[in-house]
Amino acid sequence: MSSVAEIPGYPTTHGTLALREAVAESLDRRYNIPDVDPATVLPAIGTKEMIAWLPTLLGLGADDLVVIPELAYPTYEVAAKLAGARVLRADGLNKLGPESAAMIFVNSPSNPTGKVLGLEHLQKVVAWARERGAIVVSDECYLGLTWEADALSILDPRVNDGDLTGLLAVHSLSKTSNLASYRAGFVTGDPALVSELLEVRKHAGMILPLPIQAAMTAALGDDQHENIQRERYRERRSVLIELFEAPDSPSTIPRRVYTSGRRAARNVERRSVGSPIVGSSLPPVSSTDRAVASTCGSRSLQQTNESPRQQSASPPEPCAFPGVRFPDVGIGPM
Fold first, then answer.
1. What are the helix and strand counts (H, E) for the chain?
2. What is the structure's pLDDT at 2?
3. Which of 21, 77, 27 is nearest to 54 (CA)?
């Protein structure tokens, strides 16, 4: 970053050639995505920003339908609503019936479920979208964080037969390079769509600062730190799996911590406003509970015995379990 800190001029919206080449090379090297043209790479001020504005920047409106996963990162729905488009939650194309969509968001590996979409599933999504002229946006922020199944990019030739028409892949350095505070990401794919995004973003001032571009270039060129980060996530995941698989875990692990999906989001929301559901109705604190608390901080046990009034006065923080991501909290900056 210091190498460009004293350059006073405006950075380009398209990003430096060095950055775009680093993106293309890293996608090939890390994820077996060959032949990415650096001209089709567009940096983002964090992928949350890119995802949130994609439907608007690509001209979707009230007559358009945006399909998002049934259990999903909240920004997909926000993106559709910012554009004034309709939203349908669907994990299968059959749910759409005869209706066509203008944009389909897919997320593999999924946040928050961890589900990895297989080759056949992705092929069907691409084929269905092309028959109807829909854009497929693949959120691939967790593509490098799999251990039991290989996750495929929408840009993989096995998925798209070498044709990127109507396809966009969004990538982030927040997880793989631990650069969340830098707000560093990018989108690539269909040259025509990327070109359209570039032209609009130029005039909207959606420009990534040059020092951040330099940091991204360095991070994308170094696989060692990414491997270290991946191993860190694997170790945290192993700890969590061990807790889940413990013989007494179903009866003693607090529900407020381990409930998944929408219910988890609701529990966190209720707890944060001091709902009476938190308190005496929870199971007694056991040795397993204490082990859990030692992982995420003693605050969880304190919350168990606080009155609703005490909780409201001092809103509790969501349990920071390594590897656990609740749908409405803890998924990057909101």
1. 14, 7
2. 63
3. 77
- What is the spatial distance between Cα 99 and Cα 65, in angstroms, rounded to a whole number? 9
pLDDT computed for residue 96 by the predictor:
82
Give the C-alpha separation, 130 to 123, whole Å. 11
pLDDT confidence of residue 228? 86
Encoded amino acid at 305, one letter: N
Q: What is the pLDDT of residues 135-162, one digit of tens each?
A: 999 999 999 888 887 899 999 999 999 9
pTM: 0.72
The set of long-range contacts for 32-39, using a CB threshold of 8 Å and a minimum separation of 24, is 32/156, 33/153, 33/155, 33/156, 34/157, 36/155, 36/188, 37/191, 39/191
CA atoms in the 13 A half-sphere facing the CB of 127: 10
Q: In the 8-state DSSP scheme, what is residue 326? A: B
Per-residue exposure over 73-104, b if at least 16 CB sit within 10 Å of its own CB, e if not:
bbbbebbbeebebbeeeebebeebeeeebbbb
Greatest alpha-carbon pair distance for the chain in Å reads 61
For the chain, list residues with pLDDT below 70: 1-7, 248-334
- For position 146, what pLDDT does the model report? 86
Task: Please return the burial class of 46, using the count of CB atoms within 10 Å of its CB with bins 0-12, 13-18 and 19+.
Answer: buried
CB 327 within 8 Å of CB 71: yes
pLDDT exceeding 90 applies to what percent of the chain?
47
Residue 8: cis peptide before it, omega within 30 degrees of 0: no
CA distance 53 to 41: 17
- Which residues, in sequence order, are bridge partners of residue 105? 137
The answer to whether the CB of 76 falls within 8 A of the CB of 105 is: yes
